[in-house]
């Protein structure tokens, strides 16, 4: 077996916390469950299908989930309707609780291919440090449900385990990894990403798009992608050491027609030097022709454990992502807050006007101009359940469309007579800004 190039030394943990975790794990391990013995270079694929959560415990050996090393006798919580794969290079024993959780062992895994990708990226990071140049900029693309975000997470985790601080850029407005669906954003990864914690507590740079597909407003989407790229370049220019670490870019699953053009434009905007194509030879060949020697194009296999989701399942995942933003996960105990905002204290806008033929537009206005037009929204009952992004802009003199957002609220009720907007917020107190941007997304699970 080739070396993974990953330092598997455990990170320093607080001793008291580690003791408490192991006591908890031993108590959980005594519960009824099922043990799986994995041979070297095999993986245990787990699907939590039921409405209940599951627990995974490493009893013996060494193993990892998406590049994050498991700690012996530490419980890993898996939420309902989620999947993961526990991989081992040298063999291990895993226990899953409850026994009813669906799981199976497979030796057909692309992990050796993926770790080779990591080693190539690490070599380029070393050269970037040596020559004081930018690190690798890698984009992962492919159809929906081929494991793009999983591969991104794995490459990020392997980089962190070697002491790197890579940047993760999420351009998938349908999934919402960095923030909620309907946004794009970036964050710097300084620790391994666990199955339980995800990325919710990382400081991030987020731009509001407002829909779960780029096709709703292609002009706005590409404008925000360009704005995000410019913001990151300015940040890296002030912190040269950050640029050596490179970045990993996740993308949407729309890869045909206009979707293909969006991918190419985004790759050129971020000056990508490597594109990993998952499970699509035609896309791989098209990109080889387009980029030539300007970028390395790699065709990578998808994992056999990847599950294709129905549209309803994806919609439920989006709803759960938004719910997690307001309520946290099942173990966090977050309590959202409901409070009132006077109409006079806020301004609500929507980005993008209706698609009209050129003949119906004002003199000198182009159809693409309407896509970025800021439209004032009058508060009314139709806003109930809609998501509002809180803009970082201090006044309407700023470019609100291209200004980052600092959070979200959900409209709980609208009292037109009292001119009061009641909103659900993850934190108490007054809003830090008064300019709000209307999203197409809604959230219905709010307290009565």
Automatic annotation (TrEMBL):
InterPro entries: Clp1 (IPR028606), Clp1/Grc3 (IPR045116), Clp1_C (IPR010655), Clp1_C_sf (IPR038238), Clp1_N (IPR032324), Clp1_N_sf (IPR038239), CLP1_P (IPR032319), P-loop_NTPase (IPR027417). Residues 335-445 form the Clp1 C-terminal domain. It comes from the Eukaryota. One of its GO terms (cellular component) is mRNA cleavage factor complex. Residues 37-128 form the Clp1 N-terminal domain. It is found in: Nucleus. GO terms for biological process: mRNA 3'-end processing; tRNA splicing, via endonucleolytic cleavage and ligation. Pfam families: Clp1, CLP1_N, CLP1_P. Residues 142-328 form the Clp1 P-loop domain. ATP binds at residues 43, 145-150. Keywords: ATP-binding, mRNA processing, Nucleotide-binding, Nucleus. GO terms for molecular function: ATP binding; polynucleotide 5'-hydroxyl-kinase activity. PANTHER family: CLEAVAGE/POLYADENYLATION FACTOR IA SUBUNIT CLP1P, POLYRIBONUCLEOTIDE 5'-HYDROXYL-KINASE CLP1. Required for endonucleolytic cleavage during polyadenylation-dependent pre-mRNA 3'-end formation. Belongs to the Clp1 family. Clp1 subfamily. This is Protein CLP1 homolog.
């Amino acid at each position: 077996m080739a070396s993974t190039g990953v330092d598997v030394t455990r990170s320093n943990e607080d001793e008291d916390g580690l003791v408490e975790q192991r006591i908890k794990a031993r108590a959980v391990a005594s519960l009824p469950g099922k043990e799986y013995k994995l041979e070297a270079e095999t993986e245990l694929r787990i699907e939590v299908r039921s409405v209940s959560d599951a627990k995974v415990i490493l009893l013996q050996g060494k193993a990892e989930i998406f590049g994050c090393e498991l700690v012996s006798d530490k419980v890993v919580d898996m939420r309902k309707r989620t999947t993961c794969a526990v991989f081992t290079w040298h063999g291990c024993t895993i226990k899953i609780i409850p026994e009813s959780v669906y799981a199976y062992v497979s030796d057909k895994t692309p992990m050796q291919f993926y770790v080779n990708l990591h080693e190539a990226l690490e070599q380029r990071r070393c050269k970037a440090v040596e020559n004081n140049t930018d690190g690798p900029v890698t984009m992962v693309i492919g159809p929906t449900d081929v494991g793009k975000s999983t591969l991104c997470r794995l490459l990020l985790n392997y980089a962190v385990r070697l002491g790197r601080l890579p940047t993760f850029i999420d351009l998938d407005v349908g999934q919402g990894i960095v923030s909620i669906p309907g946004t794009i954003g970036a964050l710097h990864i300084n620790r391994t990403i666990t199955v339980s914690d995800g990325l919710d507590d990382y400081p991030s740079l987020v731009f509001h798009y407002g829909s779960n597909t780029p096709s709703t407003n292609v002009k706005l989407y590409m404008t925000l992608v360009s704005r995000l790229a410019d913001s990151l370049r300015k940040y890296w220019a002030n912190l040269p050491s950050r640029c050596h670490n490179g970045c990993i870019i996740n993308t949407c699953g729309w890869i045909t027609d206009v979707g293909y053009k969006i991918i190419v434009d985004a790759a050129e905007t971020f000056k990508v030097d490597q594109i990993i194509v998952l499970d699509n030879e035609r896309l791989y060949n098209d990109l080889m022709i387009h980029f030539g020697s300007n970028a390395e194009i790699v065709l990578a296999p998808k994992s056999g454990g990847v599950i294709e989701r129905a549209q309803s399942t994806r919609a439920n995942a989006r709803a759960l992502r938004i719910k997690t933003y307001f309520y946290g996960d099942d173990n966090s105990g977050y309590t959202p807050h409901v409070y009132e905002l006077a109409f006079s204290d806020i301004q609500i806008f929507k980005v993008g006007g209706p698609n009209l033929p050129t003949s119906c537009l004002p003199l000198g206005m182009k159809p693409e101009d309407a896509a970025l037009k800021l439209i004032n929204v009058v508060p009314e009952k139709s806003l109930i359940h809609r998501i509002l992004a809180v803009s970082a802009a201090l006044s309407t003199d700023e470019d609100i469309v291209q200004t980052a957002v600092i959070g979200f609220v959900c409209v709980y009720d609208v009292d037109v007579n009292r001119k009061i907007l009641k909103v659900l917020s993850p934190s108490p107190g007054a809003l830090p800004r008064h300019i709000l941007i209307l999203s197409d997304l809604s959230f219905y699970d709010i307290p009565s």
